[in-house]
Amino acid sequence: MAYSEVTPPRNPSQLSWARNLILAYQSFGVVYGDLCTSPLYVFPNTFIGKLPKPHHNEEAVFGAFSLIFWTLTLIPFSSILLYYSMPMTMDKKHKRLRTVLLLLVLAAAAMVIGNGVLTPAISVLSSMSGLQATEKKSTDGQLLLLACVILVGLFALQHSGTHRVAFMFAPIVIIWLISILFIGFYNIIHWNPKIIYAISPLYIIKFFRMTGQDGWISLGGVLLSVTGTEAMFSNLGHFTSVSIRLAFAFLVYPCLVVQYMGQAAFLSKNLGSIPNSFYSSVPDPVFWPVFVIATLAAIVGSQSVITATFSIIKQCHALGCFPRVKVVHTSKHGQMYIPEINWILMILTLAITIGFRDTILIGNAYGLACMIVMFITTFLMALVIVAVWEKSCFLAGLFLGTLWIIEGAYLSAAFMKLAEGGWVPLVLACIFMTAMYVWHYSTRRKYSFDLHNKVSLKWLLGLGPSLGIVRVPGIGLVYSELATGVPAIFSHFVTNIPAFHKVVVFVCVKSVPVPHVLPEERFLVGVCIVRYGYKDIQREDGEFENQLIQSIAEFIQMEAGDLQSSACESQSYDGRMAVLSSDKSVSNSILTVSEVEEYDETGRQSSKSMTLQSLRSVYEEEYQQGQVRRRRVRYGLTEASRGMEGSVREELMDLIGAKEAGVAYVMGHSYVKARKSSSWLKKLIIDIGYSFLRKNCRGPAVALNIPHISLIEVGMVYYV
C-alpha cells in the first residue's frame, strides 16, 4: 500500500469553519425563510388600520422605519447571542410550580403549532398581492383562488416529501435576499437618500410625539419584522450557533435593513402606495422576476414552518404531551410528515385565508402569536439562567425585566387588535393546549395506576404452577410503561387465559430528553427498557427484534457470570439492569449471525409458528401489492459457547429456538375512566376529553411501528 499518498488531516479549526459555513448556507432555506419574507407585509400592517390618514406623512414613515430598524437589531441579535440547549430539571416536591411551568411550555408549543396555520396564509397571500400592482389588476377573488391553489399544492407536497427539492430552498432564499438588497439600494438612491438619517432613535421619539396612542398601536405591525426569529431557537438542534450567527449577521440582517430602508424611502415620496408597498417599490423592468422569486420564497418560508410544526408535535408526543400520531419519515435525513396534522393545518390555513381575505387581519393574528411565544421564551430563559447556568437571581431578573419591558410594549399593542383577527391564535392555542394537557394528565393517571397495581416477577413465577400456565413456542414481547415489575395487563391476561410464550420479555419504550440515543446504548436489559431520543426514528424493518435478541443473549451471559462470582443466593428478580451493546461485533463471541435476503410476499417477516402461518391467507389480499425484500437473520451458538455452563447454553438455545418460532407483541388496549367519587372536572377531562382523543388518534401499535399480524391486544379498564 502506498502510505505516502495518504493526505494528512487538515487543521481541526479549518474543518470547523468549513462545517459552519456549509451549515450557514443550509440555514437560509430552513431557518430564515419566514423572517426574510417579512418585507412583503410589514409596512402595510404598520400603517393600515393602526395609523389614521392624517399620520400618513414623510415624518411618520421615517419614524416607522426607525422602529423597524431597532426592533430588527435588538430582538434577533439578542436571540442569537443567547444560545442554550441544556435540559432543565425541577424538584418533584414543587408540584404546583411544575404544573405552572408545564402550562407555560404547552401554551408556547400550542402557539408555535398555530403559527403553522398563520404563516402559510400570510406569506402566500402577501406574495400574490403583487398581481394587484400590475396594469391588469387582478380581482380579490382571482387573487384568493390562486393563493388557495398554491396552499393546497404546498400541503399536498408534504406526502411525497420535499427532500428532493430541498436543495433549492437555500438558493431561493439567497437570491431573494440579494434581489431585495439591490431593490432597496435603488429606492434609497432614486427616491430619498435622507432616509439613512432615520437610523437615529430620535426619529422614534418624534414618531410617538406626533402619533401618540395610534403610534403605540402601530407597534403591532412593526413586530412583524421579527416574526420567524423563534426559528433560530427551534432549529439549533440542526445547526450550530456559529452558523446561525454567520448567516444572520453577514447576509440576512444587512439585506433586510437595506430593503426596509428602501421601502421607507419610496413611501416617503409615494404615500398612496402604502397598501402594496413592496411591489409598488419594485422597478417595472424586474417586476415579474421579483414576483416569481417572492412567491417561491414565501413557499420556502411556509414549508420551513410546516416542517417545524411536524417536528415540535413529534417531540411533544415523545414527551407524553400530545396524542399519538402516525409519523412518516420521508427521507433518511430525519425529514418527517404527519398525515393527520398536515390535513388539519391545510384546512385551518384555507379557512383563515378564505375567511379573512386580508393580510392586515392575518397579520394581527400572526404578530400576537409570535410575541406571546417570545414573551414566554424570555421567562423560560430566565429560569435557565438560574437553574441551569447557576447564575444569580439578580442577573436573571435584570435580563427578564429588560426584555419584558421591550416585549411588553409590542405585546400590549398586539392585544389592542384582539377583535380584528388577534383572537385567532388564542382560539387555536386553547384548542391545541387543551388537547395536550388532557392527554398528558390522563396518561400520567394511567401510569400511576400501573405503578400501584404492578406485581413482582418473583410473585408471578411462584404463581405459575398453581395456575397451570401452558408455555407455547415463541417470544412474547409485553409492552409496558413500567421500568420494573409486571404490568397489570399481563397478570390480567394470564389469570384469565393461563397460556403464554416460552420466552417472555417485558419491554418498556422510553423517550429520553436528548435528540438521539446511540444504537449500542439503546437497550437497558433486565426488565428490557428501549430508549429512544425524541428525534430517533422507529422503523418496522425487523432490526428491532434482531438487536433485542443480541442484547438479551449478552445479558444472559453477563448475568451467569455475576451469579457465579456472587455468594448471595437470594437475588432479586426486579431491578437488575445493564446497558448492553446491540452491535454485532459485541455479541459475536456468543452468537453466529447469518443474514439471508428473501422475498416475502406479505411484506412481513416469515415465522415458523404454524399458528401464524395459518393466518397468512387472511392477510394476503391486504398485502398483495407487490413483493417486499426483507432481511431475515438466523442465529446459532459459536464454538466458544461450548465452555459455558449447561444451564446457560440451554437458556441461549431456548432463546434462539423461540426467535425462530416467531415473535408476538402484547400490548394493553386500555379504557381509562374516572372513579365514581372523582370530581366533575376530572370526569370531564378523562371520561369525555381523553376518551375522545384516544378514539380518534393512532393506536400505540401504529406509533411504535409494530407489525399488525404479530400484535396481541389485551383489553382492560383503568379506574383512576
Strand order of the largest sheet: 7-5-6-4-3-10-11
Measured by DSSP, the beta-strand proportion falls in 5-15%
Percent in helix: 55-70%
Oligomer: single chain
Shape: elongated
Low-confidence stretches: 1-15, 84-93, 567-588, 597-630
Secondary-structure topology with pairs:
Elements: H1 12-30, H2 33-36, H3 42-47, H4 58-81, H5 95-128, H6 140-160, H7 169-190, H8 202-211, H9 213-217, H10 219-222, H11 231-234, H12 241-269, H13 277-280, H14 287-318, E1 328-329, E2 336-337, H15 339-356, H16 359-387, H17 393-415, H18 418-452, H19 457-467, E3 470-479, H20 488-496, E4 499-512, E5 523-525, E6 528-533, H21 543-565, E7 578-580, H22 584-587, E8 591-600, H23 610-614, H24 616-619, E9 628-637, H25 646-661, E10 663-673, H26 680-695, H27 700-703, E11 711-719
Parallel strand pairs: 3-4, 3-10, 4-6, 10-11
Antiparallel strand pairs: 1-2, 5-6, 5-7, 8-9
Helix pairs in contact: 1-7, 1-12, 4-8, 4-12, 5-6, 5-14, 5-15, 5-16, 5-18, 6-15, 7-12, 7-14, 16-17, 16-18, 18-26, 21-25
Comma- or semicolon-separated keywords:
single chain; 720 residues; alpha/beta; elongated; potassium ion transmembrane transporter activity; K_trans_C; K_trans_N; transmembrane helix; potassium transport
In a nutshell, what does this entry contain?
This protein has helices at 12-30, 33-36, 42-47, 58-81, 95-128, 140-160, 169-190, 202-211, 213-217, 219-222, 231-234, 241-269, 277-280, 287-318, 339-356, 359-387, 393-415, 418-452, 457-467, 488-496, 543-565, 584-587, 610-614, 616-619, 646-661, 680-695, 700-703, and strands at 328-329, 336-337, 470-479, 499-512, 523-525, 528-533, 578-580, 591-600, 628-637, 663-673, 711-719. The protein has 720 residues and is an alpha/beta fold.
